[in-house]
Amino acid sequence: MSINFMRRSTVEKFEEKMTEKFGERFQKSYPMSEYTSFKIGGPADFIVFPNTKEEIGFVLEEVKSASIPYIILGCGTNVLVKDGGIEGVVISTKHAMNRIEVQSESEKIYVSAECGVRLSTIVSAVSDAGGKGVECLAGIPGNLGGAIKTNAGTKEGSISLFIKEITVYDEKGREKVIPSAELNFSYRKLSIPRKWTILSAKLEFEKTSPELTKELVKKILEGRMKTQPYDMPSAGCVFKNPKGASAGKIIDELGLKGMRIRGARISPVHANFIVNEGGAKAKDVLALIDAVQKKVKEEMGISLEMEIEVIGREE
Q1: What are the backbone dihedrals phi and psi of residue 157, each rounded to the nearest 5 degrees, phi first?
Q2: What is the CATH number of domain 100-213?
């Protein structure tokens, strides 16, 4: 067991409590290659799938009591898990916390949604109600919690434009409501303490014609299907766009599109995507990322910053 710095009895007691509470929703040595959209990653020591915020709170209390490291993951669409897997416990909201309520008024549309709601579900519900601007979120994978954490968006806009407040568990397990005025959003990032857990959010949209919104969403989705490699495992855009430039365009212009290291390849469809063509390991993806960053720095003097999050331990 990789968490061998702890007394065996502590780990065994933790396992017993979690198995009693969650049954098959608590597992050991869970292959993260089966979890992430990249289809890459070694095993997590433990994984648990809570269904409610109360169950999340229970898990947080137990991991802290046992001094076991933990990480909270949604759909795993924007992460690269290293080949050694993840130490401690993965708390997953992938299949739960998916309640959503949409309220349409004369000039506004209000959305209350839990962290596990898929972004595609929000886009569909809001576009049906005529929510102006929601098309900027069309085609982005993952769930609401991850989208808020990464301030997900496109060149058309980001989710921070619509957030009115979020509800979190802080590092001590206390539930807090934070209004948008107190949230520090930036490009592809929300600056909050790492150990805070996003539970839910309230969003607000101006109201327009549902027909117009649905048509805009349809056009954007069609465009993304043509220009992004949806048919291959990936983690979305690898690099953040430098100010005033496109990372994908820079990589393409340097002739790196299609570059391959074993099973990892810069997509021939979109140069800011790395795809897993089969059997790729995290070390292959990281080697490809390093090669791109060095080439872009040497040729263009630009330091490309990663958009995907790399987590886990070395093999």
Answers
A1: 155, 175
A2: 3.30.465.10
